[in-house]
Amino acid sequence: MRIKPRLKEDLKKFLLFKLEEEAKIVTLISSHKLTIEQIEEIKQVFPRIKNKQLKQEVNETLMAGFIIKEGSKVTDLSLKSNLNKIKKNIYELT
Amino acid sequence: MENLGLDYKLLIAQVVNFGLFFIIFKKFIAKPFLNLIKEEEENEKKHELLKSKLLKQDEEIELKRNTFKEELNKKEDNLISTARERAKAVELKIIEEAEEDAKRIKKDSLLELESEKQDLYKQLRNKISTLSLIIVEKALKDVLNEETKKKITSAIIKNLPKDKSLYEN
Predict the structure, then answer these.
(1) Domain boundaries in chain B?
(2) What distance in Å separates residue B133's CA from the closest CA in chain A?
(3) Deepest of A86, A89, B13, B120, by most Cβ within 10 A of its Cβ?
(4) ipTM score here?
(5) For residue A64, what are the domain limits?
(6) How many domains does chain A have?
(7) Beta bridge partner(s), residue A55
């Protein structure tokens, strides 16, 4: 099926707009609600998220730690991901 | 002579009669009959000749037949021996091929067995690691409370390495 060039262009623009919008928002996912001090500490470590809109989410499966999502960029500092790394190490060692 | 009982006239008549009879017999009966006998004899001779020729031909044919039969037997023997040799060669080839096939199958089976072994080993490793993680997660879930979670999160923030590429995706 051939897509109309105009439709293609519109879709491209929409996706770019969506990406820009997503890039403006930073999602902070943690196992528990983070305190203001902890958020400030995180901002100090990651200065690029300072001027962005911050959205906080709680996901108990992470156990501890947090995940920072900026558009397509993900920084995973959760205990769950560390355990997964350990699992991978155990698999490679055995 | 008449006193002796001989009648000359009758005698002459009889002689003439006999002569006539002889002439007629010779001309009309004896000659064709002799001709017929001669023809029969000639035919007989021809038949004999033909018979002898046929016998000779029969002998020749029999001789040829025997020679042909001998040749045929020889050819048959040759063919049988050639066929036997070929069959033996084919048999050897088939055995050789079967042996090669068996070797190949054995090799393939061993490789498959080794591959399956490796797969099972991988599955086992995966199960061990998954089980270890499940045990750790279960233990941590029992131990972790809100306060501990906060402490761990603070510790993670404080101990972050300078090189962020280590934990960024």
Answers:
(1) 8-142
(2) 6
(3) A86
(4) 0.71
(5) 5-93
(6) 1
(7) A27
